[in-house]
């Protein structure tokens, strides 16, 4: 497996470890409290992960695809820290977005691979590597990965809190 495939595999492993968790799926949970407390947690999560990764971390809006942000966590990667953002739909199905700084000369191609039961799309864009991972059919994962990719391409990456009513 190539170095790029190596980090994609680490994204799949991180998903397999944390997605089934009931009590502690994330380090920073953005689903608890009032709307204003949730917004504060989202802002904290983005700032904390951005500081640790030394790059801007945006929280993707996957609500049009039926997935709400649960929260995120800091993870180790082969070359430094990485981040995992977790999303969940109304049926409890979870997907994760793994973010990291790419190595010099990393391939930027948008790719799909299977890692056991998990499917993942991964790519390098605008100074970060991104992998979307989940136990979903390829077509559903592609729709989610495309939503993330389009938000990055458009430079419009609102946090989910941006459209929540204030409490």
Structure characterization notes:
By secondary structure, the protein is of the alpha+beta class. It has a single domain (3-162), classed as Phosphorylase Kinase, domain 1, CATH 3.30.200.100. 31% of the residues lie in helices and 30% in strands. It has helices at residues 3-18, 35-53, 138-154; strands at 28-29, 67-77, 80-89, 94-100, 111-115, 118-125, 128-134. It has a 7-stranded antiparallel β-sheet, with helices on both faces. A hairpin with a 2-residue loop joins strand 5 (111-115) and strand 6. The radius of gyration is 15 Å and the shape is globular. The N and C termini lie far apart (49 Å).
Show the helix and strand layout.
Blueprint: H1 3-18, E1 28-29, H2 35-53, E2 67-77, E3 80-89, E4 94-100, E5 111-115, E6 118-125, E7 128-134, H3 138-154
Antiparallel strand pairs: 1-2, 2-3, 3-4, 4-7, 5-6, 6-7
């Amino acid at each position: 497996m190539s170095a790029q495939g190596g980090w994609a595999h680490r994204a799949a492993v991180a998903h397999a470890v944390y997605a089934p968790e009931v009590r502690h799926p994330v380090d920073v949970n953005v689903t608890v409290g009032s709307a204003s407390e949730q917004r504060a947690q989202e802002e904290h999560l983005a700032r904390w992960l951005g500081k640790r990764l030394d790059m801007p971390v945006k929280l993707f809006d996957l609500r049009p695809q039926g997935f709400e942000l649960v929260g995120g966590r800091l993870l180790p990667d082969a070359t430094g820290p990485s981040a995992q953002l977790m999303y969940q739909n109304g049926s409890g199905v979870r997907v994760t977005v793994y973010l990291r700084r790419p190595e010099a000369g990393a391939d930027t191609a948008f790719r799909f691979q299977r890692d056991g039961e998990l499917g993942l799309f991964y790519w390098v864009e605008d100074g970060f590597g991104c992998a979307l991972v989940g136990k979903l059919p390829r077509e559903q994962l592609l729709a989610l990965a495309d939503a993330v990719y389009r938000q990055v391409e458009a430079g419009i990456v609102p946090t989910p809190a941006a459209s929540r009513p204030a409490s």
